[in-house]
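Q: Predict the bound structure with flavin mononucleotide.
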Amino acid sequence: MKLVIAATGASGSIYLQRLLEQIDASAHEVHLVLSGHAKQVAKHELDSLKIPKGIIQHAENDLNVPFVSGSARFDAMVIVPCSMATLGRIASGSSDTALLRAADVFLKERRKLILVPRETPWNLIHARNVVTLLEAGAVVLPAIPSFYSRPTSVAEVVDTVVWRILDQIGLPSARAYRWADETTGRRERKKS
Ligand SMILES: Cc1cc2nc3c(=O)[nH]c(=O)nc-3n(C[C@H](O)[C@H](O)[C@H](O)COP(=O)(O)O)c2cc1C
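A: Predicted complex:
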């Protein structure tokens, strides 16, 4: 698969970190774009983002990259975490950076664009922008973890969202907890 993974300045850099760790960059072509604010937030939340070997990183403003043109064939783009600022820019049709242009291209080419916003609560502008993006074909997958797998660490909580992203990309994780699945979904109730 050919993938674009982007991150913006919302809280939740750990979602990006766990996603990067769970995609095999030797089997897939993975391009990474971070906004300036994404770098700042990642430094604050993780100290340093660890980019696995094989992932190709690009500058936010570098338009000399294949995925800003509809002529290049890509399978999916994920923006994780996605700030409400970037979500609003995409909804308005802005394509001023490589990150925004790529999102615009994925929508116009009807390719999978997965946005993972992390904001709460929402104002009406956020909600309207989300509706616009859903109407344009984006997948909006909020960074809202689930707890029926009984996660016991931050990484396990984060993975409940990362697994849903991987499902949407089309690279389901063999480790994903799936409700009522005999092999993965019925973990023993932990004693407290
Ligand atoms: C520590 C920190 C946490 C932030 N968390 C969020 C957040 O969770 N969601 C959000 O939409 N914006 C958040 N912001 C605000 C964005 O970083 C800001 O709107 C920025 O302009 C986004 O730019 P970008 O989308 O180009 O990365 C946060 C900012 C800081 C400094």
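A: The beta strands are 2-7, 29-34, 56-58, 76-82, 112-117, 139-140.
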